[in-house]
Specification:
The complex is a heterodimer of chains A (343) and B (179). Chain A is of the alpha+beta class and 343 residues long. Helix content of chain A is 47%, strand content 19%. The radius of gyration of chain A is 33 Å and the shape is extended. By secondary structure, chain B is mainly alpha-helical. Classes of the chains: A alpha+beta (343), B mainly alpha (179).
Amino acid sequence: MNIPEAEKLLGGYATGTLTPAERESLLEASLHNQALFEALADEEVLRELLADPAARRRLSATLAPVSETLPGRVVAALWRPFPMAAAAGFAAVAIAVVLMQRPSPVEVAQVFAPPPAVAVETPPPPAVAPRKARSVISRDSRVLRDAKELDQPAPLPPPPPTAGKPASPVVVGALERQDTGKAVFAESLSKEKRQAAADEAPKVREEAIAPFHWEIQRQDGAGVYRGVSNPASDTTVAMRVGESVRLFLEARQAGHLVVALLQAGRPSQEIFTRQVQPGDRVLAPATGSLNSAAGERELVVTLETAEQLRARANSSLRSQAPPAGQVSRETSNPIRIRLKFVD
Amino acid sequence: MEPRSAVRYANVTREQILTTLRERILAYATSRIGRDPAEDLTQETLLVIEEKYSHLDAVADLVPLSFQILRFKIADYQRRGVRRGEFRTVSPDGLDLADGSEDAQTLLERKELEERLHKAMGKLEGRCRELFRLKLEGMSFREIQTELGAESINTVYTWDLRCRKRLLDLMGGSWESRR
């Protein structure tokens, strides 16, 4: 084996990735090349570290697929072509709406300056409908802040400053058509936004208050654990009997993290309990996987801050023990995840 | 990849391997700690191999063993150098390999390396991230080829070489921190 070929194997030495044949080729080549020998000698410190299974496991957890974490999934989703195009389109529409609703009566009069004779015959100001439509447009930007506000009749805006400078019938007709078009467009846009706001609100609230991110992971054929559930919506996850399943958690605040396992006919069992800091990633169970026999199980995940722990300790001195079958930890943030193992 | 080295080294004696190894070790140690102490450390390293590992005669055993002994020797030399006045009072016990129980400084250095690796690996993206993850999970290059859908194993070797370089760059060019 020549030296450049052997150099390509260098990265596999410390991680133990090489087959015996590859390893022997690399080591033999190092005896013939000082640079390669020195590079390998420098790898020794890394090899020693990675020989420790615990360190290896911790580093491997660092490299868990980005898409498994919620922020990573959001970033990855945003960087795909379709969401990017949709976002750009939405931004363009928003800009267009803002530009269209900007009142500029003086400019209109200047562009379509009517001859004096026609201006005398100007009919009364336009009907209410376009004005109402314009008011809807002006409120459109506030839809996401308070969707209910649109359900109430919109008050009429003050009349535009056109007094003393009446527009021609041609100009008024054009304005009416423009306003009607805007009203229809804005109406449909408002409905879409209102629906989107209603759909998004619970998720946003859930993300805002959840003290940790969780995900059920399943081992695939290659022995790699991959996420199978969407924390924002799934609380019941179906699994097959015999599958290796575990719970992945990422703390968003400091506190005491507890994962309890509930199973029909059995007392609750704490399968994980540890102090965590924001950003800590843990697995429950810490090693291996959950019991995957047929049946239903429930994982109750609780992250209590020091203040909550103290408050619970004080209140438990005064209160009675919880009824049988209930989780003993009553806090504001337990998340319950149901696992159904079926054949 | 064929294990040609096994064939090539079939008739090479242990003495020939150690002779070549001595040259490599001396050059490496000289580049790290200077010529005079390098001579001593090289001699000590070969002495340990000769006295404690005389039963080993394969390249695949002797070379990694020399890396390990040499690393201990250099680290020990550097630590003693820090403590002024103690450098010349070396105990003959220093010739021995560590007994497996690690001292606090070694543990501290390892922890520091792990933290630096943790930070650097966190900055890896895309294929490199996935490649290192699979390596840490114990997959061979052949398995990684299948997992990542690479056309040939040489492609995986090349990816790994580049990713290793990227990781080294993120760590400042060396696995060990420079003080």
